[in-house]
Each structure stands twice: as structure tokens, then as C-alpha cells.
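Example record

Each entry pairs one chain with its bound ligand, manganese (II) ion.
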Amino acid sequence: MLAAIHASSSVILTGHERPDGDCIGAQAALARVLEALGKRVHVLNPDPPEAAFDYLASEVEYGVHTGEALPEHDLCVLLDISELERCGSLAEPLRASSASKLVIDHHVHHGDEWWDHCLVDRSASATGLLVHRLAAALGVELDPVASAGVFTSLVTDTGWFKYSNTDAETLRVAGEMVTRGVQPDLLFSAIYQRNEPALPHELGQLLANLEYFADGRLALLASDPKGGPFDGNSDLLLDILRSVDRVEVVLFLRIASDGRIKLSARSKGSFDVNALAREFGGGGHVKASGATLDGPMEAARSALLEAALVHIERHFAPAVT
Ligand SMILES: [Mn+2]
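C-alpha cells for the complex follow.
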């Protein structure tokens, strides 16, 4: 893999649709590392980064692919994703390109290992952590922008170091990024404290539909279709639901602005929400997964609830004595 990077001269970095903080943070870091090695780098995603990450977007050019021909390249790196199908309009031209493909990811991968090279570690808290390891292997020092990218990856994928994927390496690397100039309080307010005034009202309306099942272990929130689409960051809402003592599984269904129904699934313990999300064509991690369901909302809610109760009964069934 290192040889493939050294041999390349022009590299496309890409990621999944609606790229999150880990995806674009890892891209920012890798873009700076490759540029330090003299490579020409094009960051090209199916969608732009959220405005919350404009402190990275002001330093790194995040191109958005709208169907045009790909820039000339001899290496393509997929970050925070291992399936070309999730690269939106980039999937076809990338598949047609003869350039080698490198996957840097920490998600569960199903199916063929189709890539040429990979740096995949499912135990890594964030893809940005893998880019940090790669930079060390390449002998490149992270500059302030790359450091902000790695820090962004770590904090967004660990819920600011709250989730069980927060390990010693994550905290050690976060500390190193602070040494390199990252100011955690500034990044925290940039990412989490710039919501619209309407957000608390929207969350209040959404929370009115909260239901508990399975003896309080399942919190299910299906947004009211009359309430319109919700494209805001749902982390805050998921945090509130997870804060309930008895709740083990959180399922949030919302109508996105494209009219489709998006599922965010979270687990507090060992319950595997990835297995549940996969039943609906989605996936992710054991404790955090998502999927897109067919509407209408009531049908999606019933199908999801029925499947979730089967999984929960299986998982929490008392041991047979
Ligand atoms: Mn990630």
C-alpha cells in the first residue's frame, strides 16, 4: 500500500454520500499528507460537507461531483467507506477508471474485497485515526489543518469521546493534535453550537412522538409526517434518548428533505444495531447504524418495530436454565 502511494502522482480522495465529520476530517488530513509528498490531490465527494465543518472547507477544497468527467488520477482513495455504490454519482466513473483503489475504513464490510489496497481496521474509532497511522508510516508530520482534520474525525465518531470506541489510542492521538495546535473548545462550538434558533422547537415536536417498547429497553421515535422533513443533526436527539437509564436501543425515523425515510439506530450495550439496519438495506457499526426505508412513515415504523422486537427478544432473552 505504501508503495502504491509513493508511486502515485495524482490522487482522488472520495467518500460516502452526505459525508460526515470523520469522512471529511480524514480527507483533509490525507490531502495535506499527500500534498506534503508532492502529490496532486482532488477531494471529490457526492455531496458537500455540512456548514459546521467550514473551518476545514476554508482550507481544503471539497469538490462535489455532479456527473462531469473525473480529473486525471492514478490512485483513488475511499475514506470511511468500502463500497463504491455509496459514492453516489462517482460510483460508475470510479469503477470504469483503471487507477488503483485504496480503501481506508473502519466499517464492517460485506461482500468481495474488490479493492487493490486497503487499510481497514474495524476496531479503530475513526477513519481519521487510520490516516494518522498512515501519516506516521509515510513519515509525514501533520500540519495544523491535517491535525484539525484528524481531531474532527475522532470527536465526531466518538461523540466527543463518549462512546465505547473511545480507546487509549484515540485519546493519545487527540492529545497529540492539541499539541499540534488544535483548540478543542473552538472546534466544539464550531461543530455543535451553531444550530438554528428553531432547532429546540423542532426537537420538542419530534420528541412528542417518543414511544417505549420491550419493557422500556427500546426507545422508538418516528417523526410525525405532518411535521415535515428534518435534516438537522440528530446527535442531540439521540443523546437525549440514550440518557434514559433503562433504554438499550434507540431507533429514530425521520423524513428527509428528499422524502425518503432515514433510520438512525443506536445501542448502549452489546445489542447489534448493524444486524437490524442490514435487514433494511443499511449498515454501519454494532452500536451505531443507519438505513433508508421506504415510506410511508407508518409502514416503515411498523416494519422496523416488528423486526426490532424480534432482535431484542433474541438478544435479551433470559438464559435457558
Ligand atoms: Mn467513521
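The pocket of manganese (II) ion is lined by residues 22, 80, 106, 126-127, 157 (CB under 6 Å).
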